[in-house]
Structures are given as structure tokens and as C-alpha cells.
């Protein structure tokens, strides 16, 4: 078969991906392997690995346009331009998917799920494979989708952000308590509330040696590869204060987990400018 996927192959793969994403939104179980096998019968010649790679390409496209992705398909950016076009067409023809996403990102988070042991809460930070693009030169995302960034909209959900901070306060208190450092546990401070939210971090906690840990909390209801938004102040503090830790809380509404990014965000993340200040 040709290495380039035909419009029919791309359309079938995109449609199948969004079926899985809708199941995920509705918290319905689905089997990614079964979806892969089904697509192989339709595509007639594409391997399981090729199908999985294409699904990972779709994840990368959705992240670029500010939309959640199917968990388990880590984004792979060297995608076919035709694939991006088909994703945009699909979303344009299925406003129900977009509306479903809007409900999720705007939903209040008044509480957090029951905490499991702290050993299970903390997980390693994910590593995204960055490969050179092998397809056409990238074209801009369509204005219709570029103007509706639902991941950015979720980041502005104040109740979700506050619930995530309270969750981390509880996690940190339990972590220090389990280490036998009860006096330090009682000194944890929610500085975003007591001193204001312009410090560049939300919580002052401590490590096992009694040194301060300045924690900025970023919370999402979606997967670990979901981008987050950092202010200039937060980036600056991460550059200048070695005690800085960014706690990324993900899958918050279901099974919350945390990975930590200590030190400068410039070293652990790719920082893309998304806002500009204009002075006359």
C-alpha cells in the first residue's frame, strides 16, 4: 500500500477516534484494541501499529486546537496535513461533541474524590516523543477552531482550580504526616488564599529535610499530556527559586493523580507564547 493515507482511510480513522472520545466524555468503557482491529478490517492493509500511530497523530492535532484527546494515545506530531483537515471537518459537522466538551470544562468542581494513599497519587511526569515532521509544511489551524480553545477555557474554571489546590493541600499534609513530620504538616500554607494569587505559586509545603517547597498547582479533568497555562510570574519564579515545584493534577474528576515538575519550567516544558502585551 501507499504510505500516504487516502481521504477515505483518514475519514474512517478520525470517525473511529471520535467515537472513543465520546465514550470517554460519557465515562463509558471501550476497548482501544477492538477499535484498532475494526479499523484494520476496513482499511485492509494498515497494520495495528500504523492505526495506533494515526490515532496518536489525532491526539496531537486536538491538543494543538485546544481540545482533549483520548487517553492512552500519546500525541505524535508528525501528522499528515489531510488528517488535520479531516479532524476540523468532523468537529464542524458534530457540534454535539463540542457541546459535550463545553459542559465538561465549565462544570464546577465543588469537592475532590476520596484520597487514596499518597504512594499511588504521585506518578512520573510523562515524556512526549518529539520527532521531526515528515509530511507537508504545517498550515494554520482554522479560525473557527482556533478561537475556541477549550483547554484554555478549562484553565479559567475557578472552582476546578480551587478544588485542585485543596486536593494538593490534603495530599501534602498526608505526605508529611506519613513521613512522621507532623509539625511541618501543620505549617503548610495556602498562600494563594492568605497572601494573594500573584506570588507565582499557590502553596508553601516542605520536603523531608524541612526545606520549603513552593507549589504551583495546575488542574485538569483530562489526561496527563493535556497542556497547561503558565503566567509570566510563574515562569519567572520557577527560574529563580530552586524550591519551585509545579504539581500537575490530572484526571481530577475521576482518579486524580499528580506529577511534579521541579525547577525551571523552561527545562521541563516547551513554552509557547499565547498572549501578547501591546503598548502604544
Give a written overview of the molecule.
- This protein has 13 helices and 4 strands.
- The protein is α+β, with helices and mostly antiparallel strands and 280 residues long.
- The protein folds into 2 domains: 1-106, no CATH class; 158-268, Trna Endonuclease, Chain: A, domain 1.
- The protein has a 4-stranded mixed sheet, sandwiched between helices.
- Helix 1 packs across helix 4 (81-93).
- It starts with 6 loop residues before the first helix and ends in a 12-residue tail after the last helix.
- 32% of the residues are buried.
- Residues 131-144 have low confidence and may be disordered.
Short description:
This protein has 280 residues and is of the alpha+beta class. The protein has 13 helices and four strands. The protein has a four-stranded mixed sheet with strand order 1-2-3-4, sandwiched between helices.
Helix/strand layout:
Blueprint: H1 7-25, H2 32-43, H3 48-64, H4 81-93, H5 95-106, H6 118-121, H7 143-146, H8 150-155, H9 158-178, H10 182-185, H11 191-194, E1 203-206, E2 212-219, H12 232-240, E3 244-250, E4 257-262, H13 265-268
Parallel strand pairs: 2-3
Antiparallel strand pairs: 1-2, 3-4
Helix pairs in contact: 1-2, 1-4
Main β-sheet, in a few words? 4 strands, mixed
Number of distinct beta strands: 4
Low-confidence stretches: 131-144
Using only CA atoms, what is the Rg?
21 Å
Main-sheet strand order equals 1-2-3-4
What coarse outline follows from CA principal-axis ratios?
elongated
Q: How many H/I helices?
A: 13
Query: SSE order in H/E notation?
Result: HHHHHHHHHHHEEHEEH
Number of domains: 2
> What fold name stands as the CATH topology of the largest domain?
Trna Endonuclease, Chain: A, domain 1
Q: What is the CATH C level class of the largest domain, in words?
A: Alpha Beta
Helix content range: 40-55%
Looking at the overall shape, the CATH architecture of the largest domain is: 3-Layer(aba) Sandwich
User: What structural class do you assign from the helix and strand content?
Assistant: alpha+beta
Terminal Cα span: 57 Å
